[in-house]
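User: M20 family metallopeptidase. Structure?
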Amino acid sequence: MSDVRSLIARRLDDVVEDLALLVGVETPSTDPVLLSRGAAEFVPWVKERWRAERVRTLGDGPGAVIQVDVPGSLPGTVVLLGHLDTVFDAGTLAQRPFSVAGGIARGPGVFDMKAGLVQAVHAVAALDELGVPRPSVRLLVSADEEIGSLGSRSFLVDAAAGASAVLVLEPGGVAGTVKTARKGVGLWTVTATGVASHAGLDPEAGASAVHALAALTTHLVGLAAPSVGTTVNVGVLTGGTRPNVVAEHARLELDVRARTMDEASRVSDALAAWRPDDDRVRVEVTGGWNRPPWSEPAPELVERARSVLSSLGVAFDPREVGGGSDGNILAAAGLPVLDGLGASGGGAHAEHEYVVVDDLPVRIALLAGLIAGSPSAP
Ligand SMILES: [Zn+2]
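Assistant: Predicted structure:
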């Protein structure tokens, strides 16, 4: 894949220009108008670069998925999975316009994951230009990944069915990073409704919602098992009105991460079984496992990444991470998945988000090598 790397290195200015184009249209997950503007910019650009005729939109509204197919000469279909949405609100671009200085590209969503989309398009184009045989490629781009993929997940699962490999364009880390497994992510909100009373005159008449959720917090924290990767975070705990009032209302928001389904069920079963000590407090629990654990790396893809990187003279840096992605959903559907194939850089979801421009040729060559050399369909 060193030919791909050299080709991309020669046209790095074009790649950066494409990145500027995508970052230049803001695409917050929660803004349908901007998202469709982003898609209107993205689709013709991909079509032109790939000379692709088959572009479809699966579904409509916030869960819509763009599907672009380019046939190949080898058997099987490789799915490239990305998302167009970012966590940044409209107006961020005006404060932090796209820029490149000292080999570092910045701008809202540059790392997560507009650079990944640009890499995917250039990887396929480079293979074709160099005449490297490859399987068919299906690019799937959702627009609700950053808000949990509730609308897009069924389209992604259907459209990826039977793929010989799923390569996820989420950000990497350094030049040789790939992500081989991700924890599952569970999100819950618990609301408690008790009985208000005067804390001094009439304490027995009250039933504290705050005390109930404080007890639940202690219980939940006790369910964490860091040695097997299970973490519990009560990130929000609010309730009550005044110190001398027994609290009628309280609310808790919970984030749980687990490496295995067994651990995921252990925590969610314990939450479901919990009851407040005072049965006058009513509790309502909403939420669940937003993305299932992805615990089994795809060995053939991991090996392929190792060998492509070694042929490029780049140190292999496989990682298992706590953050979920749509890779979790497709791994749970039984597909071989490799993730974190986007740019090298850092600061995802933060103001200091950045992409290392000089690593783009290596990252694109890695992706190209995985596409060309993916095991064919079973
Ligand atoms: Zn992302």
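The CA atoms of residues 58 and 64 lie 6 Å apart. The two ends are 25 Å apart (CA to CA).
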